[in-house]
Each structure stands twice: as structure tokens, then as C-alpha cells.
Design goal:
This protein is mainly β and 128 residues long. The chain has one helix and eleven strands, in the order αβββββββββββ.
Length: 128
């Protein structure tokens, strides 16, 4: 195929909207399947929390940010993802996010994850 023929072919693909050259981005809330954190801590301990879930079915999906609200009694977090129309690896992308929380804590301390459907996933840590 000549250089001119290749250029016409690539422009034709772009005009079809096949997703190979489109840079549109969709944002969404990532569903978290589980939270790993201790069941109980001492008031001066640091809490290490891990969040697990599925970001997307292929490499076109990624974690964008994880905005949080924090008080001595609560950590509330929402995981935002994005999907980009591009040529992507065909491997599922998983969420494995770690946060370390420092005192102060009050009993009970609640870890709350906001889900895409408006529901919440909660894990309670007792402060003893």
C-alpha cells in the first residue's frame, strides 16, 4: 500500500468512530467490593486501610482520584475512575488502594465508601 493509500485508510478509520483514535473520556464512580482494616486499635495507633474492587474490564479504565472527608469518627471516600476510548490492553484493571490514617480517632471509627448506585460500604474500627 502506498503512503497516500495508508493515509486515506487511517483517515477512514478515524471517521468511522471506531474508538481507535477517539480521545473522548467518560468518568464514573468505581464500585468497591471490600475494605481491609483492623477490627480494633488503640487510640494512638495508625490505621492502614486497603480498598479492593474492579475498575474496568480492560486497560481503557483507570483510577483518577479518591476524594475523602475525614473527622475523628469517620473516613468517607469515593473512588472516581475514567474510561478513555483508545486502543487498550485487554486485561481487567483492579482497584487495590491503600490509605494510612493517623490519630485522632473516636470510638467507633467508621470507614465509609460511596458506591456508584448511592449505597455505601462500611467498615467499623473499634478504638479501645
Amino acid at each position: 500500500m502506498s503512503a497516500k493509500g495508508l493515509k486515506v485508510f487511517l483517515l477512514s478509520l478515524a471517521s468511522l468512530g471506531c474508538g481507535l483514535v477517539d480521545s473522548d473520556t467518560d468518568t464514573f464512580v468505581i464500585r468497591v467490593d471490600s475494605v481491609s482494616a483492623p477490627a480494633a486499635i488503640a487510640p494512638a495507633d495508625t490505621i492502614t486501610v486497603r480498598f479492593f474492587g474492579s475498575i474496568g474490564p480492560n486497560g481503557c479504565y483507570s483510577l483518577v482520584d479518591a476524594p475523602t472527608t475525614r473527622t475523628p469518627a469517620l473516613l468517607e471516600v469515593r473512588f472516581n475512575g475514567k474510561r478513555v476510548d483508545a486502543l487498550c490492553i485487554q486485561t481487567p484493571i483492579f482497584l487495590d488502594h491503600t490509605q494510612r490514617l493517623v490519630p485522632p480517632f473516636v470510638d467507633p471509627f467508621t470507614i465509609r465508601v460511596l458506591q456508584p448506585d448511592g449505597a455505601t460500604l462500611e467498615h467499623i474500627v473499634r478504638v479501645q
